[in-house]
C-alpha cells in the first residue's frame, strides 16, 4: 500500500527516532509499504519518519541510480555497486573519505534541490529486516543516499546543510510546502 509522505514542517521530521524490536507491530507489512511508497514517488530511499513513524527504519535502493548511469559516469563512483537494502536501528560507526557535493532532493521537501556536501564513505551498524546484525561500509552515491536517509531518523533534513543565506532564499518555497500549496504526483500529509 502506498502511504502518504509527511511534508516539511511536520514535527515528526524533527524528532530523533527510536530503536525498535523484532516484535514491532506489522513490521514486514510496513517495510513492504515503504518500498511501494518509495517507488511510487520515484524515490531512491525513504525513512520511517517520512511516513509519520518515529522509528529507526529506512530503505534504500541506490542500485537504480548505478544501473542507470552511462558507462563513463560509472567511473565517478568507483567501488559503488549500489544496494537495495533495509536498515533498522542504524547507527553510524564512522564517516570518511573526502567530502563531495551533489544535488539532493527529498520527497518531504518536493521541488527543491540543492547541492549538499557529504562524506565519501559511511560505516553503519544496523540490523536487516530479519534482525541479523550488520556492519558495513558504503561509498559514493550509495553512502550519500544512506546518509540522507540516516539524517531523517536523527531529525535532520538536507536543507540543514545549506548556508543561512540560501535557507532564507528558500523560505517562501518551504512555507508553501508547509501550507500544502504545492502539487506533487504522490500522496502527501501536510502539517496542521
UniProtKB/TrEMBL annotation:
GO BP annotations, alphabetical order: translation
Organism superkingdom: Bacteria
Catalysed conversion reaction: N-terminal N-formyl-L-methionyl-[peptide] + H2O = N-terminal L-methionyl-[peptide] + formate
Uppermost EC category: hydrolase
Note describing how the cofactor binds: Binds 1 Fe(2+) ion.
Enzyme Commission code(s) on record: 3.5.1.88
Reported cofactor(s): Fe(2+)
UniProt xrefs under NCBIfam families: pept_deformyl, PRK00150.1-3
Name recorded for this polypeptide: Peptide deformylase
Organism: Chitinophaga silvatica
Organism ancestry: Bacteria, Pseudomonadati, Bacteroidota, Chitinophagia, Chitinophagales
